[in-house]
Write a structure and sequence with these properties.
This protein is of the alpha/beta class. It has helices at residues 6-14, 28-43, 103-108, 138-149, 155-168, 179-190, 195-203, 208-220, 236-242, 254-257, 288-293, 312-330, and strands at residues 17-21, 47-52, 70-72, 87-91, 113-117, 128-131, 222-224, 229-234, 264-270, 276-282, 298-299, 303-308. Bound molecules: manganese (II) ion.
Length: 339
């Protein structure tokens, strides 16, 4: 799907003060895309603030080495502080519930708003959408925006956009990795992205707490439907006992679908402020976004999530029921195939 970036170029031309934001619990695509967007706007001489509803997970601190880019909504920054912002740019989401405590602020934002995203789920956000649901990452869309607007991909921007694409493709392993993805990555490395340094910063920085939490996650693994479903849980107590922090749960869902024969993986995290987050991954024809939508969530075909307010055991039972139903609907598959 090609995107006409002309309306974005016009909007940038006509305004000076931009606010950039992304979803709750930001991941590499969210934060890396923000680095890219801020770089593009600043090249155009614009005043940019990047304000997120969640704090930056420490593993991504290298994207903001002097800690001047990412600001924290509600803590460091109030709506009054943002009164001078003319345009709001929302990255890597198209659903109100992904904005968490910033949703009311965004709803009330008086100026034009832009959404650049690749998620299937889409609310009417009264925004200009720049969207391609076949894109591997929002970061990939930003590379296209740089091309279209004739902007220069600096080394800093290249590091951000490489992070974005690498994390949303599972370091170029998932089925959303295309030849074009790899051409884009080649361009980013040519522009100065430090691929080896980024890998080490992202994947060789485990704390003892995270490694112990991986152990707890593996211990909790269970299968259902003769091994077609695998699921694991992390409780608040697991976090406390291992000394892990909530951000340490990122990617642990991948253990579920790493098991031979598993078509659907579920990973449940008890949240500190109540409720349970479930991450859903498919290695079959099951539509994860559709499954998540039944519980108020959303995402992509092969990866999605939802947050439920029931106790952990009830969430597991509810999701397993829905997962069994979804798998029964697609029938028995003899070959484990990625989608
Ligand atoms: Mn993304």
């Amino acid at each position: 799907m090609s995107i006409d970036w002309t309306p974005l170029a016009d909007l940038i031309e006509r305004h000076d003060r931009f606010l950039v934001t992304t979803h709750v619990r930001p991941d590499g695509d969210a934060l890396g895309s923000e680095v890219g967007m801020a770089g593009l706007l600043r090249q155009r001489g614009k005043d940019v603030r990047v304000v997120n509803v969640s704090p930056t997970p420490p593993r991504y601190n290298y994207l903001d080495e002097d800690r001047t880019l990412f600001e924290h909504f509600g803590k460091q920054v109030t709506p009054a502080d943002l009164a001078d912002r003319e345009v709001l740019v929302i990255l890597d989401l198209s659903a109100w519930n992904q904005l968490g405590d910033m949703a009311d602020y965004v709803r009330g934002f008086a100026g034009p708003r832009v959404v650049i995203d690749h998620h299937v789920s889409e609310d009417d956000m009264r925004a200009m959408f720049f969207k391609d649901t076949t894109a591997e990452a929002t970061g990939g869309l930003l590379v296209r925006a740089f091309h279209s607007l004739g902007a220069k991909i600096t080394p800093e921007v290249a590091n951000g956009l490489l992070t974005a694409i690498a994390m949303d493709t599972g370091w170029f392993r998932h089925s959303n990795t295309t030849p074009q993805t790899l051409r884009t990555v080649a361009e980013l490395v040519e522009a100065g992205a430090e691929i080896n340094r980024i890998y080490r910063l992202l994947f060789e920085q485990n704390t003892l707490g995270r490694l112990k939490l991986m152990g707890e996650t593996l211990t909790s693994l269970r299968t259902e439907m003769g091994g077609r479903i695998a699921y694991a849980t992390v409780t608040r107590d697991d976090l406390a006992r291992t000394g892990a922090v909530p951000a340490d749960t990122e990617d642990l869902v991948d253990f579920t679908v790493s098991m031979s024969g598993v078509e659907l993986g579920l990973f449940f995290i008890e949240l500190a402020r109540g409720g349970v987050k479930v991450s859903i991954r498919a290695r079959s024809g099951v539509d994860c976004a559709g499954l998540a939508a039944r519980f108020g969530g959303g995402g992509h075909h092969a990866a999605a999530g939802a947050t439920l307010n029931e106790p952990l055991d009830d969430c597991v039972a509810l999701l397993l029921d829905a997962a069994r139903e979804a798998l029964e609907a697609i029938g028995t598959q003899t070959v484990k195939s990625a989608v």
